[in-house]
């Protein structure tokens, strides 16, 4: 499985419906499962970003399809990073 970290920012629409954020997060998690994506955790944050989503997917296509559905809903914008555990990074770094 490929792990990703997604940084979230509320859009104007998302801010107007802020009270529904946790409900939307639950719906996203359920849709992600159906798409073959496992949401490991989601946090709401204070600071430059409004949230962090950590998830894994069997392939990049599944991950991007899931993120596209999140973007289309219009409540958040995303910035996604590929994440590597120590073993994966050692392989990349040539250790």
Structure description:
The chain has helices spanning 12-16, 21-34, 60-73, 86-93; strands at 2-10, 37-44, 51-57, 76-83. It is of the alpha+beta class and 95 residues long. The mean pLDDT is 95. It has a single domain, classed as Lrp/AsnC effector binding domain/regulation of amino acid metabolism (RAM) domain (Alpha-Beta Plaits, 2-Layer Sandwich). It has a 4-stranded antiparallel beta sheet with strand order 2-3-1-4. The two termini are 21 Å apart.
Summed up:
This protein has 95 residues and is an alpha+beta fold.
CATH superfamily: Lrp/AsnC effector binding domain/regulation of amino acid metabolism (RAM) domain
Instruction: Give the CATH level 1 class.
Output: Alpha Beta
Q: Determine the mean pLDDT.
A: 95
The CATH architecture: 2-Layer Sandwich
Rg over C-alpha atoms, rounded to the nearest angstrom:
14 Å
Strand order of the largest sheet: 2-3-1-4
Seen as an oligomer or otherwise, the chain set is: single chain
Structural category: alpha+beta
Tell me the strand percentage band. 25-35%
Instruction: Tell me the distance between the termini.
Output: 21 Å
Would you give the CATH topology?
A: Alpha-Beta Plaits
């Amino acid at each position: 499985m490929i792990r990703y970290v997604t940084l979230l920012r509320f859009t104007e629409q998302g801010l107007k419906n802020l009270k529904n954020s946790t409900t939307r997060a639950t719906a996203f998690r359920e849709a992600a499962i159906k798409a073959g994506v496992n949401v490991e955790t989601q946090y709401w944050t204070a600071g430059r970003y409004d949230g962090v989503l950590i998830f894994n997917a069997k392939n990049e296509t599944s991950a991007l399809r899931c993120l596209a559905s999140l973007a289309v809903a219009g409540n958040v914008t995303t910035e996604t990073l590929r994440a590597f555990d120590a073993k994966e990074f050692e392989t990349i770094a040539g250790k």
